[in-house]
């Protein structure tokens, strides 16, 4: 049966890229398939996180999920660290995945930069844990932004090798990344060649889900553009990355395609387009930020939702992990 799984790391304020690339899709898919959405606190500590703040950050991601429309009566929402089977399955997968596969992961290279010998071993093996997150629930569909595509390919390789090595064809499904639409790769507002990211030092590079209407409008007003009016073809737009990004953001926020947005705005300059984009962004994101603040003001309720989700996730994952242990031949299997 089809099943959705995805997660977000609790490593700081969520931005428009996380929202359009991931959260919006979670909310849509929950009505189409059984859905598991977690907060990746195991992944978060691959780089230093202040222990005194980590739980609060987990609650904040949960609040963002709820604010963007995930319904705990429909989807299972839980913290990764409340389901130890993720880490147990990750160990088995560490012994299935090959070093050569991990050596190819571009996200590790980006995150580690020049001094990879100083990074944690966890950061290196992070995509293996991600495969465990997905396959513990035998998920078939994984809604993510474009930057996670390579990790999904690794997940498929791990699933296929496990099935082969332990002689159980079809034991794990080969999950697909759900990466479509104009919001799959939102770029920085300051640089059309860099993706919008939590770690960019410039606040003007991104719109955060908690930004108020003034901040949203100001960031869009200051977004880098060129002096030309919008073109009438996608090909012409593709040569102008900053313009292309703003059109894609408009399209994603409005549930349209970039071609449809161009059809409306071709020939108009940014003096017209930016204020319209700002109005749209405020109309769509304002209520999400407000709902997030409302949920954050009731941490007891968030904790209740997360505890109930964790209970259900443990129940669904337990038999799969038990089968894995038996297949591997563990003493305790
Ligand atoms: P994370 O926490 O970096 O990002 C969360 C989600 O947001 C997407 N995203 C973007 N989408 C469009 N444009 C952008 N600029 C942008 N920036 C981020 C990411 O693609 C992601 O979908 N490894 C994952 C977390 C994870 C996970 C999993 C996801 C752990 N286990 C299992 C799916 C399944 C991560 O670091 O996402």
Structure description:
With 333 residues, this protein is mainly alpha-helical. The protein folds into two domains: 3-178 and 299-328, Rossmann fold (3-Layer(aba) Sandwich), CATH 3.40.50; 203-293, Tyrosyl-Transfer RNA Synthetase. It has helices at 16-29, 41-44, 51-67, 85-94, 99-103, 106-112, 121-135, 149-165, 213-222, 234-238, 241-254, 258-265, 270-296, 299-328; strands at residues 3-8, 34-39, 76-79, 141-143, 176-178. The protein has a three-stranded parallel beta sheet. Bound molecules: tryptophanyl-5'AMP (TYM). Tryptophanyl-5'AMP is lined by residues 5-9, 17-18, 21-22, 40, 43, 130, 133-134, 142, 144-145, 147-148, 184-186, 195-196. Its main location: cytoplasm.
Bound molecule types: tryptophanyl-5'AMP
Tell me the number of helical segments per DSSP (H or I, 4 or more residues long): 14
Binned strand content: 5-15%
Task: Sum up the overall morphology in one term.
Answer: globular
Order of helices and strands: EHEHHEHHHHEHEHHHHHH
The largest β sheet comes out as: 3 strands, parallel
> Order of strands across the biggest sheet?
1-2-3
CATH topology of the largest domain: the name is: Rossmann fold
- Give the beta-strand count: 5
Mean pLDDT: 97
EC number: 6.1.1.2
Subunit structure: Homodimer.
Binding site for ATP: 9-11, 17-18, 145-147, 186, 195-199
Motif ('HIGH' region): 10-18
């Amino acid at each position: 049966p089809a099943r959705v799984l995805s997660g977000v790391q609790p490593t700081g304020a969520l931005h428009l890229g996380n929202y359009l690339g991931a959260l919006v899709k979670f909310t849509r898919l929950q009505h189409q398939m059984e859905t598991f959405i977690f907060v990746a606190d195991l992944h978060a500590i691959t780089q230093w996180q202040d222990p005194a703040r980590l739980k609060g950050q987990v609650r904040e991601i949960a609040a963002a999920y709820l604010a963007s429309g995930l319904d705990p009566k429909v989807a299972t929402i839980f913290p990764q660290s409340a389901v130890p089977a993720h880490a147990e399955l990750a160990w088995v997968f560490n012994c299935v995945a090959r070093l050569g596969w991990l050596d190819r992961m571009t996200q590790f290279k980006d995150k580690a930069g020049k001094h990879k010998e100083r990074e944690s071993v966890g950061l290196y093996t992070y995509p293996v844990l991600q495969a465990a997150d997905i396959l513990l629930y035998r998920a078939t569909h994984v809604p993510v932004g474009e930057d996670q595509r390579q990790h999904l390919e690794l997940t498929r390789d791990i699933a296929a090798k496990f099935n082969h090595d332990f002689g159980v064809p079809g034991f794990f499904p080969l999950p697909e990344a759900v990466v479509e639409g104009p919001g799959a790769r939102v770029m920085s507002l300051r640089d059309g060649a860099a993706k919008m990211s939590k770690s960019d030092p410039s606040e003007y590079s991104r719109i955060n889900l908690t930004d108020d209407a003034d901040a949203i409008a100001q960031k869009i007003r200051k977004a880098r553009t060129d002096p030309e009016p919008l073109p009438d073809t996608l090909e012409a737009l593709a040569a102008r990355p900053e313009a292309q990004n703003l059109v894609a953001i408009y399209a994603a926020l409005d549930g349209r395609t970039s071609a449809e947005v161009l059809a409306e705005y071709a020939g108009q300059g940014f003096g017209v387009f930016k204020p319209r984009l700002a109005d749209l962004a405020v109309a769509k994101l304002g209520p999400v930020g407000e709902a997030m603040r409302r949920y954050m003001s009731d941490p007891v309720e968030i904790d209740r939702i997360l505890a109930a989700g964790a209970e259900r996730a443990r129940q669904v994952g337990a038999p799969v992990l038990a089968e894995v242990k038996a297949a591997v031949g563990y003493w305790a299997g």
